[in-house]
Amino acid sequence: MRGTTDNWPRLWNLTLQLGLLTCAMLFAAPAQAQDDRMTPIPVPAQPGAIELDTGKLPGAAAPEAWHMQYGSRFARNVSVATLTPYLPDPARATGAAVIVAPGGGFRTLSMENEGSEVAQALAAQGVAAFVLKYRLNQTPQDMDAFARAMNAMFSGAARRPPPGRQAVGEGIAPQLADSRAAFALVRRRAAEWHVDPSKVGMVGFSAGAMLTLATELTGSDARPAFIGIIYGPLSTVTVPANAPPMFVALAADDPFFGAGGFGLIESWRAAKRPVEFHLFEQGGHGFGMYPKPATSTGWFDEFRRWMAMHGWSR
């Protein structure tokens, strides 16, 4: 049954996960030489972004802010969710679509490495892609205060013993609402965007992977036709009888989820649902579309082949 207490990772509570994921995104540099400093930048123009109908995050006071890190753009204090389409040439469109959920611990969003660059690569394969900029937990406006708060959260969470399991989606209700609204929008405008409403999937990274899995397991009209879980937690869940095909990619040296076991894979297999799992020897956490001297850089090629095998991409 979806949404039960059986459907949340066993090893970490939500607070610990968010702390780890945020610190991973902010302080774990990619392998290539890149500036790891967080440099504030003006909120960029976001052409084509469509505001979702989930409203403003309740109680949000800090304005949306963006910064550069590792040569990539990140957003935080997002209080209004948007969806940005990246559409293929209609002559090449396969009819499939993917909602792309960047990661960042529900406190930041990796808008390029896990967002627009993924969407552009999908569109090149004939797949309509939509980057979901979902609402985030508020953080201090000042960049130094933000960094200190994240360090403090990480340290505090690391000292806490993990309590009992929580229900899938607990603590991320606004983000789940944004995900569902994104699916509703894509399916409502499917004819305009040359999308088959029955072929709308979702891929998520880190915290975005949690959101992707929760979107499927909590059940709703938003259920994806297929899901991609990219360096998310792989703990055991209860799998619906009609669970969609799932693609999973993780690096064995991921400092947060590399040693957590493969319960999610085993759950899908036990339920006799389609699953493909790639465990890369190296790559760390947050590799996304960054070029790295590791085989994890090839995750997208494997994802593309998997989609092509199912008839979703070229």
UniProtKB/TrEMBL annotation:
Gene3D superfamilies: alpha/beta hydrolase. GO terms for molecular function: hydrolase activity. InterPro entries: AB_hydrolase_fold, Dienelactn_hydro, GDXG_lipolytic_enzyme. It holds the Pfam family DLH. Residues 1-33 form the signal peptide. The keyword Hydrolase applies. Residues 88-288 form the Dienelactone hydrolase domain. This is Alpha/beta hydrolase.
